[in-house]
Structure formats: structure tokens, C-alpha cells
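pls design
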């Protein structure tokens, strides 16, 4: 019997987790150098005049980008007060509002937004189908959902378990295991017990179709050779996808 969804975890407000996360290059201004950023931005429609919602906005870089590139209004929603404090101080913009709320609780009138984006937050949400169905209602006809989330090949094994090593400790491949066992995987990421949700590729795509959205593009970015020149230690990131990016439209 399936378990009812648990209370959302607010791990980004855990001081030890936050201290570790803050060391990542993609945090703060480093977001501009994040490996998947170019692919994500390429999925956006023309932003001029759009009413946009950023789900799991974190420190606000993407919400700020949307407003700075023409969106008429942007609402950034996040569960973490620490992340929102950074957004309000570091990535404020006259057309951006930040609101503290769990994605599981967020509610808006029908057709409220022309664009809904979410960068690397959906793998924290247990009820994916429920959320994308609500997003579909919030979108105006012709509106677009663009999201990135951790790839099912990456979430099937905990990141620390994924690499298969030979006797000398060299990486020989990436293990995919328990692929069909969807649900929460607790991972040690700066602190123990960080909850992320594994879903299959079919669940991700069919969830959008079942919500009445038209899937327009799916991208599995890996670092380019050019990007790797500046990040040589990340070469193994070409061996399997870490993220999956999707654009879907409300007809
Ligand atoms: C990996 S960060 C991504 C932040 C930002 N979107 C970016 O791309 O830099 C994930 C964000 O999702 C937020 N988050 C996780 N679970 C959430 C939930 N259930 N409701 C709202 N926000 C959530 C976290 O607080 C965090 O700010």
C-alpha cells in the first residue's frame, strides 16, 4: 500500500546543509557558469511581458534573470527562509516578489501565469502528478512550463553509490538499480537524511501528458568540451546525465 506524502523537508534551512551547499560553484554568481544553464535558458519562450512563476526559486538568480530579460512580473516561491533571505538581498528586482511557501501548498487562480519555471526543485516534491496538474491549471492557454530536475538515471542510485569502481578505484561505469522503485531516497549530501524523490522517465513525461500539457522538448544536458576546459575534474559528468530539462505547453 502506498504511503501518504510526508511533510515537505526544508533541508536548505539546516545550518550544516546550508554551509555545505553555499560552497557549490553554482551558488550565487556561479549560477551563470552552471553546466545546464545555457540549455535551460534556450527552452524559455520570449520573456517580454510574461507573468512568471519560479517554483523553488532558491537564492533568486533565475527569478531575477526572468525580470531583467523582460518578464512583466515574477513570483519566486521557496520553502527556505535562508534562501529567500539571499534572494531578497542579493537578487531583488522591482518586478520580482519572493514568497515563502511549500510547493505542495502553493495555490493560484486558473490562468494566472504565462510561464512557470522550476530549476532543480521538483525532485524534492513527492506528489509530482499533483503538482504538475496544478501548474497546468495555473497556466493560461498557450502558457509554458520549463523545468529541470535530477535525471532518473542519476536518482535511481544514491550519488555516492552510483559509480562502479575497478580494483584500483577507477570508475568503470554508472550503476542503475531499483529503477522501477519510485519514491524517496535518503542521501548523504553535506548532511545525512536529505530526501530526494526518484521517478522514472515515463512518470516524468506521462505526468505532463496526463495534466493536459503538450511536451515540446526534452533535453539531457552533459557538459560541453568547452565547459570542461574550465572544469577538468567534471569530465565524468559526460558519462551519464545528471539533469533532465523539459518544456511543455498548455494548449
Ligand atoms: C537545488 S536548490 C535550486 C534553487 C534554484 N532554483 C536554483 O536553480 O539555483 C532547490 C530549492 O528548492 C527548494 N525546495 C525544496 N523543496 C521545496 C518544497 N517542498 N517547497 C518549496 N521549495 C522547496 C529549496 O529550499 C531550494 O531553495
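designed seq:
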Amino acid at each position: 500500500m502506498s504511503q501518504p506524502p510526508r511533510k515537505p523537508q526544508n533541508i536548505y534551512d539546516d545550518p550544516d546543509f546550508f554551509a555545505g551547499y553555499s560552497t557549490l560553484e553554482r551558488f550565487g554568481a556561479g549560477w551563470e557558469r552552471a553546466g545546464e544553464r545555457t540549455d535551460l535558458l534556450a527552452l524559455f519562450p520570449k520573456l517580454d511581458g510574461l507573468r512568471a512563476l519560479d517554483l523553488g526559486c532558491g537564492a533568486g538568480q533565475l527569478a531575477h534573470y526572468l525580470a531583467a530579460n523582460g518578464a512583466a512580473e515574477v513570483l519566486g516561491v521557496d520553502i527556505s527562509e535562508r534562501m529567500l533571505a539571499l534572494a531578497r538581498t542579493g537578487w531583488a528586482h522591482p518586478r520580482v516578489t519572493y514568497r515563502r511557501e511549500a510547493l505542495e501548498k502553493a495555490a493560484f487562480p486558473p490562468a494566472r501565469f504565462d510561464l512557470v519555471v522550476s530549476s532543480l526543485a521538483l525532485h524534492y516534491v513527492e506528489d509530482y502528478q499533483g503538482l504538475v496538474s496544478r501548474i497546468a491549471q495555473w497556466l493560461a492557454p498557450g502558457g509554458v512550463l520549463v523545468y529541470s530536475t535530477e535525471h532518473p538515471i542519476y536518482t535511481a542510485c544514491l550519488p555516492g553509490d552510483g559509480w562502479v569502481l575497478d580494483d584500483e578505484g577507477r570508475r568503470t561505469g554508472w550503476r542503475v538499480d531499483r529503477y522501477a522503485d519510485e519514491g524517496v531516497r535518503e542521501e548523504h549530501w553535506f548532511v545525512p537524511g536529505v530526501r530526494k524523490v526518484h521517478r522514472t522517465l515515463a512518470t516524468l513525461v506521462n505526468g505532463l501528458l496526463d495534466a493536459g500539457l503538450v511536451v515540446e522538448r526534452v533535453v539531457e544536458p552533459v557538459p560541453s568540451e568547452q565547459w570542461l576546459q574550465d572544469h577538468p575534474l567534471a569530465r565524468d559528468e559526460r558519462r551519464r546525465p545528471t539533469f533532465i530539462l523539459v518544456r511543455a505547453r498548455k494548449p
